[in-house]
Amino acid sequence: MADLKKGLYIVSTPIGNLDDITIRAINILKESNFIICENPKHSLKLLNKLGIKKKLFSIHDYNEENLIKRIEKFQINSIIALISDSGSPLISDPGFKLVNNYIQKNIFVTSIPGASSIIPSIQLSGLSVSNFTFFGFVPKGKSTSEALAEKVIKTESTSIVFVSGKNLFDFLNLIAKHNLDANLGVCKELTKLNEVIFRDTVGNIQKKILNKEINLKGEFVLVIEGVKTKPKQSLDISVENKTKRLLEKFTLTEAVEIVHKLTNISKKEVYKMALKLKND
Q1: How many whole angstroms separate alpha carbon 163 and alpha carbon 223?
Q2: What is the C-alpha R_g of the chain?
């Protein structure tokens, strides 16, 4: 292959099936002076299969700044590959500070695209692919995971999160508080022989877990249906008549709330109209 520029190569690796690595990725790994990876023992499985022997440097969130100092003298004159345990580096994985260090120093950096669990999970979920939002891993803390669930359930686009098996049921509980009937795609072991995708509502997925139909070992990609927004009505005569009837039975505030929920018209607009009707 043509001579490679010195710099950092962000190399995507398989998410399960080792045959999913690209020819370009293999060539970069072969030509690199050394490889930065998360877990050397895990990465060696792939590298040994490819017959590649390189010096490996381990990268984690807690040691990333020290690693940058450690390799600083090699940055300009070396071909360095950055890989994660699986998939595309930086996506819920370490490496952000390292990449930005190269960018700030104006040293060559590029990405070698390849496997990622995000795209196949939404393709296989049966949910809308026209617009989606990726939220990363479900956090461990109760308040932060509750905040994420609330954000997800209010998102109009399809949502994607990574979640460990031990946290899956609890996170589904948080979603169920808002919408028990939200449609899900629960993906596990993507690209492997035992790949499985469960497509059902939140409530039914929870039943499958309780019935031990879903093995909770490992990690999952959870795809969640976007919230369906009601079409907004305009303040026409029918809305005015409806508001008049409600004002006969309810307080101004209560009537405004009801009309807002029924029509999706802003409370401010409804209140202004209802106040005028009440005073006429």
Answers
A1: 11
A2: 26
Q: Report residue 244 as tokens.
A: 């008049």
User: What's the one-letter identity of residue 231?
Assistant: P
User: Is the CB of residue 218 less than 8 Å from the CB of residue 188?
Assistant: yes
57: pLDDT strictly greater than 80: yes
Q: Is 47 helix (H, G, I), strand (E, B) or coil?
A: helix
- 228 by Cβ neighbours in 10 Å (0-12 / 13-18 / 19+) ranks as exposed
pLDDT digits (tens, 9 = 90+) for 87-137: 999 999 999 999 999 999 999 999 999 999 999 999 999 999 999 999 999
Q: Rounded distance, CA 104 to CA 170, Å?
A: 41
Residue 20 CB partners (closer than 8 Å, separation 6+)? 14, 114, 115, 191
Q: Enumerate residues 6+ apart whose C-beta is below 8 A from 175.
A: 149, 152, 153, 182, 202, 224
Q: Which residues contact 204 (CB under 8 A, 6 or more apart)?
A: none
